[in-house]
Amino acid sequence: MGVVPHARQGHRGAHGAGGALQRDVRRGRPQGHAGTDREQRRQPVPPRHAGAVPLRGQAVTGYFGKVSTLGDFVSRGLPDGLVAAWDAWLQQCIHASQQQLGDQWLNHYLTSPVWRFAIAPGVLGPEGLGGVMMPSVDRVGRYFPLMIGAVGAPPLLDWFHKHVAWYDAVEDLARASLDPAFGLAQFDGMPEPGVAKDAQPVPVNGTWRFALDANVGERVAAAALQGHGLWWTAGSPGVEPTMLTCAGMPRAQGFAAMLDGTWH
């Protein structure tokens, strides 16, 4: 996993997310354990309002994780296989970071930043995924991040450069879930990023061919990032503004640094 400085996109910083979660949990909530209980059932979710159905070929925004007003996992709108792969990866990350951070894990988790991500097809399944991951907690004090994301397959850097407004909007929705009056109906009509769901072209006999024009650099970068993920954050009190790039998902043993900013 590589770490590169994050050039700000012009969106608001992520500095409030961890602090907001910390205030919510400290305000009399029971301090339970991280959400590693696989026996927890997913919260039944009403169907998406008919007016929010996207046009054919566009990505659909969904979510998975914990919200502060409910006691179970919530999930809607994302492929089951993708959700299962995300859940398995995050369970490993939580376990590894707890082992590394020990008694300090909760403090670092509560003040960790919102991470935005773009994950190529073939990493979590045949679909690509772009979205946000925010530290969260359920009603009974079990800690597990909330992810809001959309399935799509544009070049990874397109997520970063061309969909800032969408990332801002879904991050606002994630933050809204920390409000004591939050209800799942607030997720109705979630914005869609307007990215194509179709897969990108593939090389022939292991070789890419590009037209030598003004956009060749973007296409070469897109080819080089196949099978990779981009993760970026505006930071938090303990984590500097950063972009990560990695083959596949971030390693579980490196997840603690995404919470406390200690990069090795």
Radius of gyration: 18 Å
Strand order of the largest sheet: 1-9-8-5-6-7-3-4-2
Average of the residue pLDDT scores:
82
Q: Which structural class should the secondary elements be placed in?
A: alpha+beta
CATH architecture level-2 label: 3-Layer(aba) Sandwich
Low-pLDDT segments: 3-11, 13-18, 25-32, 35-41, 43-57
Biggest beta sheet summary:
9 strands, mixed
The helix/strand order is EHEEEHHEEEHHHEEH
Strand content: 15-25%
**CATH H-level superfamily:** pa0076 domain
- Give the total of domains: 1
How much helix is in the residues? 25-40%
- Tally the beta strands: 9
CATH level-1 class: Alpha Beta
- N-to-C CA distance: 11 Å
CATH fold-type name: pa0076 fold
Describe the structure.
Helix content is 28%, strand content 17%. The chain is an alpha+beta fold and 264 residues long. The protein has a nine-stranded mixed beta sheet with strand order 1-9-8-5-6-7-3-4-2. The radius of gyration is 18 Å and the shape is globular. Mean pLDDT is 82; it is low at 3-11, 13-18, 25-32, 35-41 and 43-57.
Summarize the SSE layout with pairings.
Elements: E1 2-5, H1 15-26, E2 42-43, E3 61-65, E4 73-76, H2 80-101, H3 105-110, E5 115-119, E6 129-134, E7 146-151, H4 156-162, H5 164-176, H6 216-224, E8 228-233, E9 242-247, H7 255-260
Parallel strand pairs: 2-4
Antiparallel strand pairs: 1-9, 3-4, 3-7, 5-6, 5-8, 6-7, 8-9
Pfam families: TagF_N
Protein name: Type VI secretion system-associated protein TagF
InterPro entries: TagF, TagF_sf
